Amino acid sequence: TKLPALRSPHRGDPEPVLCRGECGLPGHGVHDATTDPAGIRALFAAAPWATGYGIACGRPPHHLIGIDLDTKSSTDSMASLQHLALHHLFTIPETVTVLTPSGGRHLWLIGPPDVVVPNSASRLAAGIDVRGAGGYLVGPGSVSAHGAYRLAPGTAELSPAPCPRALLRLITPPA
User: What pLDDT sits at residue 74?
Assistant: First the structure.
């Protein structure tokens, strides 16, 4: 599943604990994210049964934004994104793209450090989810019961592109 491989270390506590990893124990989902290779190895060592990993969105240093184009809806989400681009005058940039087992795709974009992009599901358009602060994207090479997440041909050598300003305005709440 897409659930974290490590359960919360606070799951048996009598009172709710609002810990986001400050306790130093793994099991806080997206709050366990790290770019430290030793920290990443430690997380996989703590969950050797894990068949995948998540990439935290909205966090320094990259402020990753994920545009998740689903195929579950009756609407063609890629066509919907292209329609939004035409209507709001932006170009969908060439960027890292991950193909999902269901036939969807994740477009990886970079947001500015001073803008918090919230997570949303089908708010932008049917079948288009946005992953921002507190969200994550399943990383390429991850395997689920439905198949593998893999880089789209021709995108492995790309870096995540900056999010077009017009798209950024559409995915962030008004001030």
Answer: 66
Element (H, E) at 169: helix 165-171
DSSP structure class, residue 130:
E
Name beta bridge partners: 138.
Answer: 54
- Cα–Cα distances (Å) from 76 to 23, 51, 65, 109, 128, in that order, read 44, 29, 21, 20, 9
Domain ranges of the chain: 1-50, 52-171
Q: Which tokens sit at 125?
A: 């358009």
Strand partners, 16: none
pLDDT at 61: 86
Averaged pLDDT, 129-143: 95
Fold of 52-171: Prim-pol fold (3.30.2250)
Burial class (CB in 10 A: 0-12, 13-18, 19+), 126: middle
Which helix (H) or strand (E) segment is 78 a member of? Answer: helix 77-87
- Does the pLDDT at position 73 exceed 70? no
Residue type, 65: I
